[in-house]
Specification:
A hairpin with a 2-residue loop joins strand 2 and strand 3. Helices cover 50% and strands 9% of the residues. The model is unreliable at 1-16 (pLDDT under 50). It is built from 27 helices and 15 strands. The strands form 3 sheets. Strands 6-5-15-14-13-12-11-7 form an 8-stranded parallel beta sheet, with helices on one face. A 4-stranded mixed beta sheet has the order 1-3-2-4. The protein is an alpha/beta fold. Helix 5 (137-149) packs parallel to helix 9 (206-225), helix 6 (161-171) crosses helix 9 and helix 20 (520-530) crosses helix 21.
Length: 727
């Protein structure tokens, strides 16, 4: 009788899980479009024989039937149907509707595809600052759907943690004002969470703490419903400066300063061997689990871009051992997820001996490493496969949300294929650790496709991509994307990367990150093919046109600036004035292109910031944070997160360049050397006043993107053709 009862309970649980998976997949289709709900149905199928995730898609009578071993696999199957057969791309932005053909197509032949890796990780601590700080639930809901469609099952989920820490620190005796003053402003929280800075642009409003906690509850609930395992934070040793006063006998040390931030923003580290460490870990994990639940995997990064108190191997080994023990004392099932950025960024300090000591302080299989920047440097190859610990191969692709063409996509795919063959049994996943979303999704969707055994040739990759961006079979789009894939997208992402109009104006500076790193004729060919189209019907194609057009204009600005500097040295006033006029028109043309898409505008970023606030003073505070992050940042990070956006180009970058143009023309006219200090002071006034400004009204773009592109082409065609000679 007891056995029968247990069997009955087990059967009910299985039936409930099946029903939930089917309900969640159907709800996802419904959120994307009611049209899909009428055409698509889902069914549960068994996992692959090796236990891998699997999906199938086929037509039966008048329905498209998508099978999967869980809701996440079904979502990948749905995305396959949308991409290949409906020729559409689902945007990760909630404001962009899903574009579908009037009659949804049938599938001529059944497809069955298995996952190649069990874990698919997404996000970076920085993304929560560079892209997500002002998102509401509608934004997150679409983004979580996008993650499911792309098979992501291990997302970083760090929203709302300040509410947990607020409860912990106040229980330990800190006042509300002290805690909120310890936190940074909302856009800077990633670097506070990584123990780089405290207090910068704080204090954090209480309404932020409460609102983000409620948002996190919705985020993790939806992620779990779609078979994701959210990675929540745990205590990594970062404590408020105040704790050093409150617990004078605790082993709390000041950390190294970060990126030239001054003393008031320095962080502090509590040694994991100190009994207070275990107490704080217990308080935090219990409070976080009460608020958000747990999936037993925790992101812990004690020394990101920071020097540990000691680099001695024994010390590093003990730090890891004690941190892990503090986890399992609260959650016996705990696993540690560690980003491997520090092993690349400080690779001279973290010798193989030191890295091994740190990684092997945790039992085998209980610390998963994110190999953070594999398109450039695969640390698993230098560090003996992370000494047996599981690891995830990650594509970074973007620093700071910089919005120019970059990403060595094809080469990254080749590296990933090699890693899947050579990386050992402890290579357990594929991921992306982008710092900002930007508008071009292709590089990240490409990497996550590699997690599934599609067996696509390069030609199939390009043709399917081009067709879904065009919304139909399109030879011009295919020809454009073939050149992009083979010859243009070969640029390794770097920091402070952006077109020259978004860079600080300096005489004779080479601006190496703005150098054209591809044959300019290739990009011009892509441009020509894209503007061949008679009409643009998809959001993805609008983005392609903006993306390519503003890059061409940025490259042209680079060649014009070199000519301007040469004319200055020759004291050619007429030529200087002509070039100033040309360069001004280039910036205004970039502005007009960007106005064709809301997520290419500063106005959208500011509106998101202000809309999240309730009280007027909080709205202003959020806007100040939003403005500062993408311009002056703080420390020595001015222009790190430069964005090629409408509103920024006209109202910020152009004003800096106008100072440069007018100063050099005036000094050339007077026959004297320009005063560099005065120029810098003029630019500094623009930068200092920018964060405190309010609102940004921009004219509504009345022309469609193709009309704007053709006007740009007509204005600059001759100069575009000359770019090659200048580079």
């Amino acid at each position: 009788m007891k056995r029968l009862f247990i069997s009955l309970i087990t059967s009910i649980a299985v039936i409930s899980t099946v029903a939930n998976d089917l309900d969640q997949a159907q709800a996802l289709a419904r959120r994307l479009s009611p049209q899909l709900e009428q055409k698509v149905t889902f069914e549960l199928i068994t996992a692959a024989s090796n236990g891998s995730d699997i999906f199938s898609i086929e037509s039966r009578e008048d329905k498209v039937v998508i099978g999967g071993n869980n809701a996440n696999s079904m979502a990948v199957g749905l995305n396959r149907y949308l991409n290949k057969y409906c020729k559409t791309t689902v945007s990760w932005y909630a404001d962009v509707s899903v574009e579908l053909p009037t009659t949804l197509p049938d599938i001529p032949e059944k497809e069955t595809v298995e996952a190649r890796v069990p874990q698919r990780f997404f996000l970076n601590y920085c993304t929560f600052g560079y892209t997500m700080p002002f998102w509401d639930w509608a934004d997150w809901e679409r983004f979580i759907d996008w993650m499911a469609l792309n098979g992501i099952n291990m997302p970083l989920a760090i929203t709302g943690q300040e509410a947990v820490w607020y409860n912990v620190w106040t229980k330990m005796g800190m006042t509300e004002e002290e805690v909120r003053g310890y936190f940074t402003g909302p856009v800077y929280l990633p670097w506070h969470r990584m123990a780089n800075i405290d207090a910068w642009c704080g204090p954090l409003p209480k309404e932020w703490l409460d609102g983000q906690a409620e948002l996190q509850k919705k985020i993790v609930a939806r992620e779990r419903a779609l078979n994701m395992r959210p990675v929540l934070p745990a205590f990594a040793g970062h404590v408020p400066r105040k704790l050093k006063e409150m617990y004078p006998n605790a082993d709390i040390k000041a950390m190294s300063t970060w990126d030239e931030f001054e003393e008031p923003y320095r962080t502090f580290f509590l040694n994991s061997e100190d009994p207070l460490y275990t107490r704080i870990q217990k308080m935090f994990l219990e409070e976080q689990t009460r608020m958000f639940g747990t999936d037993h995997i925790y992101g812990i990064d004690p020394f990101n871009e920071m020097d540990p108190p000691s680099f001695e191997p024994d010390y590093l080994n003990k730090i890891s051992e004690h941190i892990y023990k503090s986890l399992t004392a609260v959650d016996p099932q705990a696993e540690w997820l560690q980003m491997g950025w520090f092993l690349y960024y400080q690779r001279k300090d973290y010798t193989p001996e030191r890295a091994k000591a740190m990684l092997t302080g945790v039992p085998q299989g209980k610390m998963t490493m994110l190999d953070y920047y594999c398109e450039y440097k695969e640390m698993w190859r230098d560090l003996d496969g992370f000494f047996g610990q599981p690891y995830i191969w990650c594509y970074l692709g973007n620093f700071g949300g910089n919005s120019n063409i970059q990403g060595n996509v094809k080469q990254a795919g080749e590296k990933l294929e090699a890693a899947l063959k050579e990386g050992g049994n402890n290579l357990v996943g594929i991921g992306s650790t982008l710092e900002g979303l930007e508008v071009q999704q292709f590089p990240y969707e490409y990497i996550f496709e590699k997690a599934w055994d599609f067996k696509k040739t390069d030609e199939q990759v390009v043709n399917e991509l081009a067709d879904r961006h065009a919304g139909k079979e399109s030879l011009p789009a295919r020809e454009a994307w073939k050149v992009l894939y083979d010859s243009v997208l070969n640029i390794r992402p770097t920091t402070f990367c952006g077109p020259l109009p978004c860079q600080y104006p300096e005489l004779d500076k080479e601006h190496g990150r703005c150098t054209v790193r591809y044959n300019p004729q290739h990009l011009l060919y892509v441009w020509d093919k894209l503007i061949e189209q008679d009409v643009v019907t998809t959001d993805a194609m609008t983005i392609d046109l903006i993306w390519i057009g503003r890059q061409l204009l940025g490259d042209l600005f680079y060649t014009e600036k070199k000519a301007f500097d040469k004319a200055y040295h020759e004291r050619d006033i007429k030529r200087l004035e002509e070039l100033m006029e040309d360069m001004s028109y280039i910036i205004l043309s970039m502005e007009a292109l960007n106005q064709c898409h809301p997520f290419c505008t500063m106005q959208k970023w500011i509106e998101q910031a202000r809309d999240l606030g309730v009280a007027p003073e909080v709205k202003d505070y959020y806007e100040m944070n939003a403005r500062r992050l993408v311009t002056t940042w703080g420390g020595d990070l001015n222009d790190y997160a430069s964005r090629n956006w409408a509103g920024l180009l006209d109202n910020y970058y152009f004003r800096r360049w106008y100072c440069y143009f007018s100063t050099l023309i005036a000094s050339a006219s007077e026959g004297i050397e320009y005063n560099k200090a005065e120029l810098q002071e003029s630019i500094k006034k623009i930068q200092d006043s920018w964060p405190e400004q309010k609102g940004l009204e921009m004219p509504v773009q009345s022309e469609d993107v193709l009309t704007v592109c053709k006007a740009v082409d007509a204005m600059f065609r001759t100069k575009f053709n000359d770019i090659k000679a200048s580079n």
